[in-house]
Amino acid sequence: MKTVNPVKFGTDGWRAVIAREFTFDNVGICAQAVADHLKQTGQAEKGLVIGYDTRFASEDFAAAAAEVVAANGIQVFLSTKAVPTPEVSFGTVLRKAAGAVVITASHNPARYNGFKIKSADGASAPAEMVAAVEINIDRIFKSGSYRQMPFAEALKQGRVELFNFDPPYLKQMAGLVDLDRVKNSGLKIAVDSMFGAGAGYFEALLDGGTVRVTGINSERNPSFPGINPEPIAVNLARLAAKVRSEGHNVGLATDGDADRIGVIDENGRFVTQLEVYALLALYLLETRGLKGAIVKTVTATSMLYRLGELFNVPVFETPVGFKHIAPIMMEKDALVGGEESGGYGFRGHVPERDAILAGLYFLDFMVSTGKTPSQLLEYLFSKVGPHYYNRRDFHFPEERRQSIIDGIQQHQPESVKGLKVTGFDTLDGFRFFLQDNSWLLIRFSGTEPLLRIYSESSSPERVEEILDFGQELTGVE
Fold it and tell me: Are residues 149 and 260 in the same domain?
């Protein structure tokens, strides 16, 4: 067993390359650390839910985690198949479990797998819970051992219970959206499951009416051929082409574990994650007539502030990561929480991202208003003004991290492409506010070795100019 601890939790869980750091031993150590935490906090008797995605050997890593947790005398509710992460979160609340473990690397490249932890409310584990688990991991690495029992024996003794969370989860979706209205809308919908755990869910939920759902990349393929399972424009060329060539009204895409949504409009154009978030907020506030706070990360759209003003609801801002969003959602009984990654959570459900529910809400927005996605965006802009966005990602040698940080700190600009810098903060990365309400953000990813540069402005051309400046400031290529 390794004596050097390679496990470090980032923005949402621990992710590592399969067979290098992500091994059965290291998963076992993580599972032991979670089991110890449940015992340390007096929650062991509530049990633990374990789910997994469609990545290479995810079901085997999930079984290995179950063997460890069961060996510690803790009841395990193990999913019978690969499922969306939000379904695991919902199952945790349903079973009144102490929390959950999900074997998934979400949107990371195929060579990765990961270990996510959920709290009892189904949310991403808060910082204090993650810190406590990491302390346990360090201790277990030093001791060099963890408990384990054969999976077949754990099943025989009833310490592991196989559970199908699909029926209650689908019932939950039907209670949140008028599915009959969407089913009988006659829409043609293209769905890209990106070879992930969201495959088949829109088809199952919308079966039986006049709507037609056509799926692509819906088979299991752990190599994710031709894409990373992240629903952004560069990975959705096939979906966009299908929408254009076959006359679909909309295209929906879910990431590897179906907690992030991507949208393609009727013309085959990618609707950015920031636009989708603002549209979903508008849908809830205006079409559904609901009231409640909006929670956004630093990377999410400033359109939300304008919507907050228009509908007289507060807007709260956090660092990147749903582990920061969820506590505020629960504290403020927020209507919606979301981030630039395409993950959005909603009141009345679990305080966690759910791409299936987000997709259903988007479809209901179309049906309720009779508008196409591009028309919805025009309507949004008529209320908040035009807003455009882009992000650039750069791989960088880890040894350059500090020099990039030093360079930004030592050369903070007074203006960006002729626009005066009116504000600056370091809530999560380095963010510059500009005089025309544009913004530039430079931050390191918490899940991958990437430097990300973001901008939102009033025109696509201005966005690219600001991104050019950010790239020059950091010296990355």
Answer: no
CA distance 29 to 141: 7
CATH of the domain at 430: 3.30.310.50
CA dihedral over 447, 453, 455, 460, signed as positive or negative: negative
* Strand intervals (E) in 197-277: 212-216, 250-254, 261-264, 270-271
Report yes or no: 69 and 35 within 8 Å, Cβ to Cβ: yes
Q: Which residues are bridge partners to 173 per DSSP?
A: none
- Helix intervals (H) in 370-425: 373-384, 401-410
- The DSSP symbol for 272 reads P
For residues 201 and 221, what is the distance between their CA atoms, to the nearest angstrom? Answer: 17
Based on the fold, state whether residues 242 and 379 are members of the same structural domain.
yes
Same domain, 299 and 335: yes
Residues spanned by the domain of 178? 169-384
Q: Say if pTM beats, i.e. exceeds, 0.90.
A: yes
The per-residue pLDDT string of the chain (477 residues; one tens digit each, 9 = 90 and over) reads: 445 788 999 878 999 999 999 999 999 999 999 999 999 999 999 999 999 999 999 999 999 999 999 999 999 999 999 999 999 999 999 999 999 999 999 999 999 999 999 999 999 999 899 999 999 999 999 988 999 999 999 999 999 999 999 999 999 999 999 999 999 999 999 999 999 999 999 999 999 999 999 999 999 999 999 999 999 999 999 999 999 999 999 999 999 999 999 999 999 999 999 999 999 999 999 999 999 999 999 999 999 999 999 999 999 999 998 999 999 999 999 999 999 999 999 999 999 999 999 999 999 999 999 999 999 999 999 999 999 999 999 988 888 899 999 999 998 999 999 999 999 999 999 999 999 999 999 999 877 778 999 999 999 999 999 999 999 999 888
- Residue 3 domain-assigned? no
392 lies in the same domain as 380:
no
Phi, psi of 390 (to 5 degrees): -160, 165
CATH number at 131 reads 3.40.120.10
What is the H or E stretch that residue 15 is in?
strand 14-17
Strand order in the sheet with 76-79: 14-17, 112-118, 100-103, 48-52, 76-79, 160-163
Asked if residue 274 and residue 147 are part of one domain, the reply reads no
For residues 26 and 31, what is the distance between their CA atoms, to the nearest angstrom? Answer: 9
- Count: domains in the chain: 3
